[in-house]
Amino acid sequence: MDQNADASFDPSKNYDEDTLAQQREIEKEIAASQAMVSQLHTFDEIVEEYSQEDAIYRQKIEDLKSRFKNLRKTRGDGNCFYRAFGFAYLEKLLNDGKEYKRFLDIAQKSKDELIGLGFPQFTLEDFHDTFMDVVKMVENPGTVDGLFQAFNDAGLSDYFVVYLRLLVSGHLQQNADSYVYFIDGERSVKEFCSQEVEPMGKESDHIHIVSLTKALQIAICVEYMDREGEKCNSFKFNPFESLADDTDTAPAFTLLYRPGHYDILYPL
Amino acid sequence: MSGSSGISAFPDGDNMFKWIGTIEGGKGTVYEGLKYKLCLTFPDQYPIEAMKVKFETPCYHPNVDTHGNICLDILKEKWSALYDVRTVLLSIQSLLGEPNIDSPLNVHAAELWNNQDSYKKVLLDHYKREAARSVSSKESVKHL
């Protein structure tokens, strides 16, 4: 009888709030156990995450080990792609002044483009300012440790992620005709952006990666580690490939994709 | 913040993390002519985390429960850091006239919705009984 009472619907109870509270508990647990961006790990540490029986994954980690030196993990909070992208790219810019200048110019101009698309100016400026503060940590003189601190400071890191999400949304909306057929569920591109791109914690798919690399004109490589084949499949996202002037298309950095999650890889 | 769109909101005294808002029912809806007071609170992580919004004036509506909690996707999983007080209040205002009757918090209101005449009668009774008090106190807030 008591069990039945527990399982029955209690109209005075707010189940919606309970669900949200439980979700917040899970988020807190993840936040307490995983850094937003971790220190460098070796593959020997990573292989321990998989049991001896998991031969496919263990074999693939050996494959990664033959080509990459380290791995940097990101928090599994649905924002991992953006955080991995942001950290890996700014880290690369520490040693590439020419690319930094190019990026700074794109980043500066992006604000007016997004406002032109109808994003609210006051709020957008707030995120753009913080985004630029983080980007400028690359100069005078930037350090990996400085970026590491910034990407683990929620006030900077989350604002940075929001702005990258807005860049993806802006690119999709500007090029809606090219993307509308890749969106499932009979949604418009704008609806897709407000449901799957702009909210924090919404995971990234192929379409988000294509958009961000095109919006910022950055080529990247993703190593896919799934149960297919014997080695990881590497896939290059090259925003320049449709242009005749195919100058420098070496990927700026490489990410590791394990189902549902992105981390950063460091080559040997 | 105020405007001609039937919504307004002001910080609750010196506390910038708590605002009091008002919404007038949209023209042409059964809520036309009714005013509701809401309480908006901002968590530490705002705007990364959604603001919390509750009806202070009891509101008879399919997506509002007896405690004033609102079931609206943009306040939950579809929250985006770009939303502000104005966009949220406008969304709630349009929710009044266009409820989501498939996932109701108030089943009674959801079932009655399709019969707009009966709905309006129950709504007005409810409003007169429960809401009149808080609306008269709200008038003084609005003209501050």
Automatic annotation (TrEMBL), chain A:
The active site is at 77, 80 (nucleophile), 261. Its EC number is 3.4.19.12. InterPro entries: OTU_dom, Otubain, Papain-like_cys_pep_sf, Peptidase_C65_otubain, Peptidase_C65_otubain_sub1, Peptidase_C65_otubain_sub2. GO terms for molecular function: cysteine-type deubiquitinase activity; ubiquitin binding. Keywords: Hydrolase, Protease, Thiol protease, Ubl conjugation pathway. The record marks 224, 226, 257, 262 as: Interacts with free ubiquitin. It catalyses: Thiol-dependent hydrolysis of ester, thioester, amide, peptide and isopeptide bonds formed by the C-terminal Gly of ubiquitin (a 76-residue protein attached to proteins as an intracellular targeting signal). Residues 69-268 form the OTU domain. GO terms for biological process: protein K48-linked deubiquitination; proteolysis. The keyword ATP-binding does not apply. The keyword Repeat does not apply. GO terms for cellular component: nucleus. Belongs to the peptidase C65 family. This is Ubiquitin thioesterase. It comes from Plakobranchus ocellatus.
UniProtKB/TrEMBL annotation, chain B:
CDD domains: UBCc_UBE2C. GO terms for molecular function: ATP binding; transferase activity. InterPro entries: Ub_conjugating_enzyme, UBC, UBQ-conjugating_AS, UBQ-conjugating_enzyme/RWD. SMART domains: UBCc. It comes from the Eukaryota. Keywords: ATP-binding, Nucleotide-binding, Transferase, Ubl conjugation pathway. Residues 1-132 form the UBC core domain. Gene3D superfamilies: Ubiquitin Conjugating Enzyme. The active site is at residue 71. It holds the Pfam family UQ_con. Belongs to the ubiquitin-conjugating enzyme family. This is Ubiquitin-conjugating enzyme e2 c. It comes from Plakobranchus ocellatus.
